[in-house]
Model the fold of this input.
Amino acid sequence: MLKAREAVRTLKEYHPPLGNREGLRLDFNENTGGCSPRVLEKLRSLDGETLARYPQREPAETVVATSLGVSPEELLLTNGTDEAIHLICETYLEPEDEAIIVVPTFAMFEIYAAATGAQVIAIPASENFQFPTEEVIARITARTRLIAIANPNNPTGAFVPIADLRRLANTAPDAALLVDEAYFEFCGETIAPGWRDFPNLFVTRTFSKAYGMAGLRIGVLMGHRDQMHLLRRASSPYNLNAVALACLPEAVADQEYVQDYVAQALTGRRDLESELEALDIRYWPSRANFVLLHLGSYCQPFIREMRQRGILVRDRSSDYGCKDCVRITVGLHEHNQQLLAALREVFVQIGMREKVSR
Done:
């Protein structure tokens, strides 16, 4: 009987709660207002001839590379950040190698690394979900071939200082250091183009968050040109479809739209954190477009009542160290105000008066 590899048979499954997502989407850290009008205009202009041809990735890569201040040889467009992570794992991990992650974090790090047969070393975050740099360095061995970090982290919003990332790259020159900067626009700090100093460093970005194009699945993988040459060998030449590639230059060109959205999200994040502070609700300061808060026994009633009001928030209780925690996305001003109004109403309705201690 045909059998899958042992690493696949024992792999954890990831089941995003995508069913019945009608309402205000504050559960997946998406852009709450959608993409730029220029992207929609481009979509409407596409014809059958465009869809009949195989897509060309290189012209769009040049546009994105220019916007990010890197060379096209240092950049590869991917089918979302997921494919970028997958490519790194498939390119550098052998069975019995070790991959280090700090939990809680983005689930696909562990899944893609484990699928190769590598051993995943999960190190718990420090107090208040801070990155445990010294513990990570202590766990680096001759078998370490990957260290994967989301910065800012998902679901906590914590940020790893750039100096710490550079120290890790220097400490483990034989391991790929993958820094996922999916929430860079809401943070403003990056380690790119640090791969020019550390050839083992890779940085990913996405057009799913600030740019509002999660449905088109466009990611960016950047690194040293010598390493990127190898990664291109493992990548499909047609990994992005023609529709995504046609829309991408319009999205990149409309920086005014992106900057306005980010500004509203940052104001919303500040207002949400201030509201939680005033209500004496425990939360963790965030550098992303979301806030993680702890609600204790009120967690499930809160999620249900918010859904009743047409607002979706994300239960993160299954993540390491996040029992009874909820993650809430911020976005456009009108959506942030809708969130705050509902939050106050729900806290009253479920009888949440006293501080919830985690």
Summary: DSSP finds 13 helices and 13 strands in the chain. The first strand starts at residue 24 and ends at 25. The domain at 20-30+256-349 is CATH 3.90.1150.10 (Aspartate Aminotransferase, domain 1). Residues 156 and 345 are 25 Å apart (CA to CA).
